[in-house]
Amino acid sequence: MASPLIHASRKVPVFFNDTPSPLALEAVRTIRPLPLWLDDADRPPATPALQSDISCSLLVIGGGFSGLWTALLAKRADPERDVVLVDAGRVADAASGRNGGFVSHSLTHGIRNGADRWPSELDHLVRLGHENLDEFGRDISTLGIDCDFTVAGEYVVAVQEHQIEDLRDTANLANAHGDTVQELSGERIRAEVHSESYLYAIADPDVALVNPARLAWGLLDACFGAGVRVFENTPVLDLADVGKRVMAATELASITARQVAIATNAFPPLLRKMAKYVVPVYDYVLATEPLSTAQWDSIGWNGRQGISDAGNQFHYYRPTADGRILWGGYDAVYHRDSGVDPAFEVDYGAFGRLSEHFFQTFPALEGVQFSHGWGGAIDTCSRFAPFWGRAHAGKTAFVAGYTGLGVGSSRFGARVMLDLLAGESTELTELAMVRTKPLPFPPEPFRSMGINWTTKSLHSADLHEGRRNLWLRTLDRVGLGFDS
C-alpha cells in the first residue's frame, strides 16, 4: 500500500496499490531499460579520453549541468581563460540525462523549504531564482539550443484531503514572497486534466519543461564553440594540492590547474569533507509510447503542464514533445555505503509500481504501453537544496546536494562556484544559503538505518492522513530531511 487518495466521485478512500495488476505488468513487459532522453539518434559522438598530461587555468570535473554551465560561464566572463572539462563517462549520462526535465525557478527546493531555512533572505532568494530562470531561457535562445524548452507551468495536485490545506498554505506563502501561484478547486483541476484522483491543485505558471539531454548536448556544443577542451571517459581518481596549483590524477594522465570546480553530484566525492553531506538516492521513471489524439482527448491536459502530486512519496509527470507521458518518482532507494552502481538503474519492481499508479491515475489510458524505463542517482542532502564549499586554500570549489531540483538551479550553482573561486565578496557569496552547510548524515550503519526508517515513516504518514510520527517530528525539529 502507498499514499492514499480520495476517489472524487465516491468520496471513499482508495489507495495507490503497490501490487501491480496484470494490466500494469503487461504495460512494462517490453520496455527498453534506458533513459528516453538518451535514446536519440542525434546524440553527439564521444570526445576522446585524455591521453597525456596537460595544464589549464580552470579544470571542471563533471559533465552534467553544473559542470557545463561552469565551463561556459567561465569562458563568457573571460574568453582567454583556458578551461578544461572532464567527465568520467559521457556528458548527460548521469542525472542530467535521466531527470524529468522540470526547470523550476526555485533555488531552495520550494518556497516552504526556503522559508523554513532562510526566512530573512527569502524574498532575495525568490528574486534571484526568477532572474536565474529568465537568464536560463535567454541563454538557450541566444545559443540556439534545440531542447524543447517551454514555460508550460506546473500543477501540484492534492490526492488526499489533508493535502489541500498544506497546498493552500504553500500558495499563500509563495504569493506573499513574490511568486504568482493560483489555486484550483477539485472541479477546476479535473476539468483541466481528467483524473478523478485530483481534489485540488495549485498552479505555478513560471515552471519550464525541457528535454534535458538535448539541453546538456547544446551546452556541450556551446562549450566547444567557446574554446573549452572536453575529455569524456576520463575519471579523476585523486586531487592533490601542489602549492599554487591543484593536480588531478586520471587513469592515463594528469591535469595541473590553477583552479578546480567539482560538479560530481551524487558520485563518490573527491573531497572527504563532502562525503558526509550527500547520499545518492535512486529514483525511477517510465515513458509511454506516443499517445494517439483520442488518448490525449480522453485525459484533457491541453496546456501540457508539468504535474506532481503532494504526497511524501510523490509522483511527477509531464508530456514530451513527441506526445508521450513521462511518469516518475515515488520510490527513493538508498543503497548501503552510499552505493552507486549501473546495476541500480534498472528496477522492475519500481517500474511495476509506477505502472500501477499510472493507470490508477489515468484509467482512461488502459492499454497504453511504456516504451522506456530507467533510474538514476539523486544527490540528496538534508536541507534539500544545494550547498557549496572550498578546498585547497581556495583553489577548489564545489557544489552538490540539489536533491532532484537541479535542472534550473545548476546554472545558479555554477555562478556561485565561480564567485567563490574568484575569492571576492559578491551578492551570491554573501547569502546565508551559500555560507552554510546542511546537517551531515551519520556514518554507517546508522546512515542506512536512519534513511530506511525515515522512508518507512514517510510511507506511513501518507497512509495516515499525513500524520508524522515521533521520528519524523524529531527530524523536523533538528532540520534533517530526506526527499526525492
Describe this structure in words.
- The chain has 484 residues and is of the alpha+beta class.
- It has 14 helices and 21 strands.
- Strands 6, 7, 8, 14, 15, 16, 17, 18 and 19 form a nine-stranded mixed sheet that branches. Strands 3, 4, 10, 11, 12, 13, 20 and 21 form an eight-stranded mixed sheet that branches. Strands 1-2 form a two-stranded antiparallel sheet.
- α2 crosses α11.
- The two termini are 19 Å apart.
- 51% of the residues are buried.
Question: In brief, what are we looking at here?
Answer:
The chain has 484 residues and is α+β, with helices and mostly antiparallel strands. It has 14 helices and 21 strands.
Question: Mean of residue pLDDT?
Answer: 93
Computed over alpha carbons, the radius of gyration is 22 Å
Care to count the β-strands? 21
The helix content, as a percent range, equals 25-40%
Largest sheet: 9 strands, mixed
| Alpha-carbon distance between the two ends | 19 Å
Structural class: alpha+beta
| Poorly predicted sequence stretches spanning 5 or more consecutive residues | 1-14
